[in-house]
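can u do me a favor
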């Protein structure tokens, strides 16, 4: 049956046009019930023994997705009209309900009611889209009742809705309908009630919501402005829009980057944050200029001390409150205030960033009796998140557990946001539990790959076929002495090298990268999964792969003595590493050696070894030194990071030893050729596809970001020129002293002042914005790690299309979609970094729990009541107090901000920035369930 479906839309020119589309209706869409004799039951999803089939409305899906994901809820019909509405309102929830519907272990069925002739409803005159959709849901429910009534026997079809009017109409029409709460109560599982999001007052099912009596309750926060007023205020320049970022060291201080004033607005105190969470898009009103915060003697706060809520509801004078952390890429902003920065207050929330949080309940005595509802405070492991008030019927089971809680609302008369329990992770302090918390906090998908994804893999054992060798697009390079150099124990080897001396005195040098796209094809479940994961994640004790292990460790891994498919970049270079020519080819290689960095370095250093492999290594290293020198001459920065290496017990997975990661010449050699390959590929793909190449840029740091480094350098007599990356690189080279570690420490501090490098679509920016500041390269991309980064998979497809090997996939013609992929890659890359850092932090705590240690540290920040130190041996950072905790002001200590010194009033003792001090390191637990490293001056 054919019907016409019409709607109106506004064009880019502002005209309103009517769009009419043909809408095909069918009568052969099956119901999904396995016991149905009328429909095709070969693909049935609902249980044959189902006593109740649930049909959920849109708001139930949007608000109660945590409940729906619980295995106790099954035999659910999700209507296509509901799916479409959820997709338009919340893409995250849409993805979760789609995952439920495609999970073979769950009994969720999508019924295309919009295309069934008996369930399609046409909008009536004057009917709102919402009312039309509610009517469509009721019609579909009634169809299921009539359709299954004679067949289902005792099976009941039940509409689940919290909408009072929808429930009333359903009852009048003879449809069985229940609220979420009444249905869950009838199941007799009290724990499920904890999962419920409390519905707003206009909905039904308010039995468990306390009477707030707004007129009798104290208003704690200012009401948020309505969106109409916010929009008007933004247009008139009264309000400023931006993303709120809460200080990682101090949860009572936040920043909003505002394009409208070209600066960051500082928000002090919970009152001025006005119920905004980290990551919310907010509207901010500037405070009068006499209330802006200028530079002053900052003290070290401690977010682990008990919160004084009354203090922090008004603009707070609390400053830095650092926690012990690994400092790699921590932004200088988190530890410094710049003079006369604009200060403001949040007046409205434009877009919420609420999600699920990991933590534990604040310890409390068990109430008298059992089984009743108890109100408890949830404390997130992320110190930027305020305490969340939940109600639970299983307090005794949760007090010693790490749990997940979701936020539901935050009323202006409530000191805390309200939320609900989602699930239990495990025992507090258990290493596996705490590792899972790291993954959840950073939105890392560590689930096993689905059967649909694994079905995309070629059968094992896999080997290069005669068809591969005969393929004209693929060059046979098995005769070359190809080798790989990686960290010890590396199994996912995605790059290899070769270096052959040519008769003319030049060298042929090749970078060979695993040909992942030969196995990962666009539009397949395998490709979709890799798109979402974005990157492999490296934790201290394990690796979470972007692709299944058969690919990462076998089929694609360029292991020694096996033939593998590769994508090769091959140069002819002079002995001074000047590139004469470049070519790109798909290839077949056979690696002759898989070396570790230590093994490669040992070969190069052993003058007795003159074999071909060692000779090739030395030639490549000589070329790499020329390449590195030229890169530095162009202005590339040689920065440093405090990368930590753990020795892990193979049985318990606990850390046995910890130390700084050592960089050798072999590491630098490999890095140089990977950088060169990435730059060559970037030039090639951009030349062929100017509007849709995936590139990587590194924006220049702002003057404000470099200010802390300048101040520290000046305090120790260094004059750093930061006018260009070249000037900064030269200044860093000159920053040497008697202390061999001094230069590395300055470079670590410089690293923190840098912006993050990001992926982008070339059509979104102008060529001057493509520049990579750190590498001083006008063009850059990622090509060399497709096993572990999806960005490289995209770039491989672009390179293959530029060579005419394959057609350009259709996605590259949709620039907005490519931009969305780049945005997801940036999000996933950042999360993987944060997860790796959190894993190091966790294992550092585990290591020091049984090993209190005395060690050397360097002062990196001076504060009025102490200083912040960096411990080179262990790569950790934290506060050292000179005055008693909680003591106001500096007491007997005086701070010289200009010279970055803190000294006793009587002049007997002083400490200065970058000075070496000895400290004691131990694990303490000042608050239950929040262990931390305590650093004490010896």
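np, heres the sequence
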């Amino acid at each position: 049956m054919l019907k016409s479906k019409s709607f109106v839309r506004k064009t880019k020119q502002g005209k309103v046009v009517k769009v009419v589309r043909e809408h095909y209706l069918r009568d052969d869409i099956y119901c999904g019930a396995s016991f149905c004799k009328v429909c095709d039951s070969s693909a049935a999803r609902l249980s044959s023994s189902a006593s109740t089939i649930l049909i959920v409305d849109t708001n139930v899906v949007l608000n109660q997705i945590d409940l729906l994901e619980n295995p106790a809820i099954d035999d659910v019909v999700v209507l296509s009209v509901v799916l479409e509405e959820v997709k338009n309102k919340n893409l995250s929830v849409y993805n979760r309900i789609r995952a439920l519907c495609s999970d073979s272990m769950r009994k969720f069925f999508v019924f295309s009611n919009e295309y069934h002739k008996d369930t399609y409803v046409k909008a009536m005159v004057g009917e709102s889209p919402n009312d039309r959709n509610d009517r469509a849901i009721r019609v579909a429910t009634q169809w299921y009742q009539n359709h299954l009534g004679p067949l289902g026997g005792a099976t009941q079809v039940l509409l689940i809705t919290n909408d009072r009017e929808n429930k009333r109409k359903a009852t009048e029409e003879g449809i069985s309908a229940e609220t979420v709460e009444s249905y869950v109560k009838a199941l007799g599982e009290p724990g499920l009630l904890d999962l419920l999001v409390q519905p707003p007052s206009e909905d039904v099912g308010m039995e468990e919501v306390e009477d707030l009596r707004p007129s009798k309750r104290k208003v704690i926060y200012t009401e948020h402005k309505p969106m109409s007023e916010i929009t008007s205020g933004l247009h008139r320049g009264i309000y400023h829009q931006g993303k709120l970022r809460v200080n990682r060291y101090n949860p009572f201080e936040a920043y909003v980057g505002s394009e409208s004033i070209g600066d960051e607005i500082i928000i002090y105190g919970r009152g001025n944050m006005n119920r905004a969470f980290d990551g919310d898009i907010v509207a901010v009103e500037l405070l009068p200029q006499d209330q802006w915060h200028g530079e002053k003697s900052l003290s070290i706060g401690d977010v682990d001390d008990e919160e004084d809520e009354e203090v922090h509801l008004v603009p707070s004078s609390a400053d830095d409150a650092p926690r012990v952390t690994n400092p790699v890429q921590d932004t200088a902003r988190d530890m410094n205030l710049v003079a006369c920065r604009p200060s403001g207050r949040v007046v409205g929330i434009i877009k919420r960033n609420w999600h699920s949080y990991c933590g534990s309940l604040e310890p409390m005595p068990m109430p008298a009796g059992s089984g009743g509802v108890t109100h408890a405070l949830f404390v997130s492991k992320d110190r930027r998140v305020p305490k969340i008030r939940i109600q639970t019927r299983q307090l005794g089971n949760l007090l010693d557990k790490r749990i997940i809680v979701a936020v539901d609302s935050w009323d202006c008369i409530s000191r805390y946001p309200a939320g609900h329990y989602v699930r239990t992770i495990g025992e507090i302090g258990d290493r596996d539990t705490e590792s899972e918390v790291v993954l959840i906090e950073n939105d890392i998908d560590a689930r096993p790959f689905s059967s649909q994804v694994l079905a995309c893999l070629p059968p094992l054992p896999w080997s290069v076929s005669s068809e591969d060798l005969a393929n004209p697009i693929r060059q046979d390079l098995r005769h070359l002495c190809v080798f790989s150099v990686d960290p010890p124990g590396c199994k996912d080897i995605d790059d290899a090298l070769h270096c052959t001396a040519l008769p003319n005195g030049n060298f042929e040098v090749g970078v060979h990268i695993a040909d992942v796209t030969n196995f990962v094809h666009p539009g397949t479940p395998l490709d979709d999964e890799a798109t979402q994961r974005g990157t492999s994640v490296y934790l201290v004790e394990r690796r979470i792969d972007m692709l299944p292990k058969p690919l990462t460790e076998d089929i694609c891994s360029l292991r020694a003595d096996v033939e593998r498919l590769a994508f090769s970049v091959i140069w002819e270079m002079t002995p001074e590493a000047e590139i004469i020519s470049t070519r790109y080819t798909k290839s077949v290689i056979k690696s002759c050696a898989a070396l570790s960095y230590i093994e490669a370095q040992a070969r190069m250093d052993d003058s007795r070894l003159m074999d071909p492999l060692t000779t090739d290594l030395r030639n490549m290293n000589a070329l790499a030194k020329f390449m590195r020198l030229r890169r530095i001459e162009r202005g590339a920065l040689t920065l440093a990071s405090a990368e930590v290496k753990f020795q892990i017990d193979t049985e318990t997975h606990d850390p046995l030893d910890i130390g700084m990661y050592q960089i050798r010449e072999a590491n630098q050699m490999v890095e140089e050729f990977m950088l060169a390959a990435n730059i060559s590929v970037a030039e090639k793909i951009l030349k062929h596809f100017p509007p849709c190449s995936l590139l990587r840029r590194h924006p220049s740091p702002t003057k404000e970001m470099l200010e802390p480094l300048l101040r520290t350098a000046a305090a120790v007599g260094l004059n750093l020129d930061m006018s260009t990356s070249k000037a900064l690189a030269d200044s860093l080279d000159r920053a040497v002293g008697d202390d061999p570690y001094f230069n590395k420490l300055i470079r670590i501090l410089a690293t923190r002042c840098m912006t993050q490098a990001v992926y982008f679509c070339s059509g979104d920016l102008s060529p001057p914005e493509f520049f990579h500041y750190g590498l001083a390269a006008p063009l850059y991309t990622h090509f060399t790690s497709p096993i572990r980064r999806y960005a490289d998979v995209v770039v491989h497809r672009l390179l293959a299309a530029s060579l005419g090997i394959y057609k350009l996939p259709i996605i590259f013609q949709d620039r907005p979609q490519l931009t969305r992929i780049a945005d997801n890659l940036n999000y996933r890359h950042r999360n993987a970094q944060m997860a790796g850092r959190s894993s190091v932090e966790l294992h550092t705590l585990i290591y020091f729990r049984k090993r209190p240690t005395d060690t050397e540290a360097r002062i990196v920040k001076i504060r009025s009541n102490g200083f912040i130190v960096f411990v080179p041996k262990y790569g950790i950072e934290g506060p050292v107090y000179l005055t008693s905790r909680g003591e106001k002001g500096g007491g007997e200590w005086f701070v010289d901000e200009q010279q970055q010194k803190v000294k006793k009033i009587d002049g007997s003792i002083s400490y200065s920035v970058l000075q070496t001090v000895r400290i004691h390191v131990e694990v303490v637990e000042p608050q239950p369930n929040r262990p931390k490293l305590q650093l004490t001056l010896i």
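The two ends are 85 Å apart (CA to CA). hope that helps!!
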